[in-house]
């Protein structure tokens, strides 16, 4: 359906682009996910309906730009559209996790920044006001008793309150209990910022008999750590070492529309909040320029003129793999009289290092302009500091930077003209190539007349990316298992004989980084290739695969179970599977290494799972 929005809002703010017409295309049911076919149909329908911008607030796995939604995204941008896609909310998972919907060459993968201010209900205690966010389960204003009772552990630290023995001798009936957050175990009525909790405990110790007063209405509050990249926002790179995400927008602690039955408004967080901000910003830019350039052209302007952020406590800028080109700045984008291409630089790894790159700087203004070039390094992130096979959830931040030399430190460009500059990069010196640190930074061109500076982000990986582990061997993957007729899964001993009428073989894989081609190859006892394993539950074991999360929402290790009943795809280009006869076979799990040609077995990480009889 098409809906005409209005600048008149029941709240004292308006949206990013209040007078656009937007189309709503439902791709999800009440629960679960949506298939690519449904998403592709909605994208095509938006194009056929004459939409100018597609907002894709969709989470998803991370993979390659060859996935269907990314491919269609590029085709639509070529035909005049713009596409903004959420980068994902897997920041706690570490590297290689940008969602695949935004991996197209021309689409915008959108990261999140935390809002500097939030619209919250609050309470007062000891003369100070504390904003709180009601839990999803509660989701309404709190109107409770006024007595506060913090719950402490024996060592004096604040407890999570989930162990009933901690309450021995403490009267909490009819009182407000303060605990430290543990969302995996507890369901609080509301939550406050960490610093606010420390301040509240200090106020309670000073005045334990103080009273809480609960507000009835919401107010504006400054958010602790606001204005910086959101912790939840996913990190790049993609499987081809391309720079993703592209751009960032406010996505943390955003006042948003919500189902009317649940209050109509709620403060929400996620890259799904940031993505429509970019879509709306695109509309503002088009309105200001009174033209409709293709989405990749507008993306370039946004990336050229974004505001780059630093992490709290860091002397350098936040990694490009976290914030992309930086926080979108629509005013800069509209007012700039300069442009710089390409809009990002992929230096790749040490083996394929792009040590010399040409850029083009254009003066779109009405008079001659002199530009000065500079290099702004960003944090280097080490995800494999301990030599492990699966990337850590939090990187070791290193002051390990590339160096950049310019063919000209300054350049004078007449109005409407361009200049080509050669950048000469040198890899960082400190970081160990065996730990594969990902470094990044920004090349900046600053006009001397005070006009808006323009920039290009760059990224690179030190070391040979083909040596980055794909299978999580630290956790003993790949492995063999078996599932019986009742569906019970158990480990399989070596050299086991399977009766496929009673049980099925299971190949277990756990991928810590992308592979262009994950395959499970079946050989007979004479080592003749018989085909690619065809799984009953996943499909044919051949094709690209993105990295997997470490743990699921319940804290269980994430891996894939390829249930096998004896069928194979005889060749990569075959259209039908065949059943193998009874006999002895060897199974080989083979993962193509990144940036390789794909010659088997030289370009693959291989694991022979031994002799199998069925």
TrEMBL record:
GO terms for biological process: proteolysis. It holds the Pfam family fn3_5. Keywords: Hydrolase, Protease, Serine protease, Signal. One of its GO terms (cellular component) is extracellular space. Residues 353-459 form the C5a peptidase/Subtilisin-like protease SBT2-like Fn3-like domain. Residues 14-325 form the Peptidase S8/S53 domain. Gene3D superfamilies: Peptidase S8/S53 domain, Subtilisin-like superfamily. Belongs to the peptidase S8 family. This is Peptidase S8/S53 domain-containing protein. The lineage of its organism: Eukaryota, Fungi, Fungi incertae sedis, Mucoromycota, Mortierellomycotina.
């Amino acid at each position: 359906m098409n809906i005409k929005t209005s600048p008149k809002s029941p709240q004292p703010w308006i949206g990013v682009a209040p007078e656009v017409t937007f189309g709503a295309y439902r791709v999800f049911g009440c629960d679960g996910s949506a298939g690519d076919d449904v998403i592709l149909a909605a994208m095509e329908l938006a194009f056929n309906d004459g939409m100018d911008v597609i907002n894709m607030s969709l989470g998803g796995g991370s993979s390659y730009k060859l996935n269907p939604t990314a491919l269609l995204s590029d085709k639509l941008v070529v035909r005049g559209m713009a596409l903004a896609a959420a980068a994902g909310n897997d920041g706690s998972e570490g590297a290689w996790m940008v969602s695949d919907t935004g991996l197209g060459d021309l689409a915008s993968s959108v990261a999140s920044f935390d809002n500097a201010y939030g619209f919250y209900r609050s309470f007062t205690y000891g003369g100070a006001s504390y904003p709180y966010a009601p839990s999803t389960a509660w989701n309404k204003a709190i109107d409770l008793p006024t007595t506060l009772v913090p719950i402490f552990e024996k060592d004096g630290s604040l407890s999570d309150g989930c162990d009933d023995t901690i309450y021995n001798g403490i009267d909490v009936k009819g009182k407000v209990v303060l605990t430290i957050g543990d969302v995996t175990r507890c369901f609080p009525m509301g939550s406050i910022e960490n610093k606010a909790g420390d301040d509240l405990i200090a106020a309670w110790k000073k005045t334990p008999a103080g009273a809480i007063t609960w507000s009835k209405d919401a107010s504006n509050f400054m958010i602790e750590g606001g204005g910086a990249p959101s912790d939840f926002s996913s990190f790049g790179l993609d499987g081809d070492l391309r720079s993703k995400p592209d751009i960032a927008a406010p996505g943390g602690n955003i006042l948003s529309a919500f189902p009317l039955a649940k209050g109509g408004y709620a403060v929400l967080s996620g890259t799904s909040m940031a993505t429509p901000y970019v879509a709306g910003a695109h509309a503002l830019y088009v309105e200001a320029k009174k033209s409709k350039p293709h989405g990749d052209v507008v993306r370039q302007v946004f990336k050229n003129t974004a505001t780059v952020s630093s992490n709290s406590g860091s002397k350098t800028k936040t990694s490009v793999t976290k914030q992309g080109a930086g926080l979108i700045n629509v005013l800069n984008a509209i007012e700039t009289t300069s442009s710089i291409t390409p809009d990002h630089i992929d230096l790749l790894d040490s083996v394929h290092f792009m040590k010399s790159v040409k850029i083009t700087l254009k003066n779109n203004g009405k008079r001659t302009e002199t530009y000065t070039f500079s290099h702004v390094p960003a944090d280097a992130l080490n995800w494999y500091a301990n030599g492990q096979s699966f990337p850590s959830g939090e990187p070791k931040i290193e002051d390990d930077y590339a160096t950049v030399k310019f063919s000209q430190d300054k350049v004078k460009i007449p109005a409407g003209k361009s200049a080509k500059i050669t950048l000469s990069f040198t890899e960082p010196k400190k970081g160990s190539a065996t730990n594969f640190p990902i470094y990044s930074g920004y090349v900046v061109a600053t006009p001397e007349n005070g006009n808006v500076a323009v920039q290009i982000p760059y990224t690179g990986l030190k070391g040979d990316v083909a040596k980055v582990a794909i299978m999580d061997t630290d956790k003993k993957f790949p492995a063999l298992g078996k599932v019986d007729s009742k569906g019970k899964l158990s480990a399989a001993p070596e050299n086991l004989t399977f009766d496929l009428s009673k049980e099925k073989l299971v190949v277990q894989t756990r991928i810590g980084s992308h592979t262009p081609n994950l395959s499970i190859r079946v050989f007979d006892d004479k080592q003749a290739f018989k085909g690619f394993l065809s799984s009953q539950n996943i499909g044919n074991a051949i094709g690209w695969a993105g990295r997997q999360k470490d743990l699921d929402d319940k804290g269980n290790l994430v891996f894939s179970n390829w249930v096998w009943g004896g069928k194979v795809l005889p060749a990569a280009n075959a259209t039908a599977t065949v059943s193998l006869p009874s006999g002895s076979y060897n199974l080989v799990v083979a993962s193509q290494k990144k940036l390789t040609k794909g010659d088997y077995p030289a370009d693959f990480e291989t694991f022979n799972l031994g002799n199998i009889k069925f």
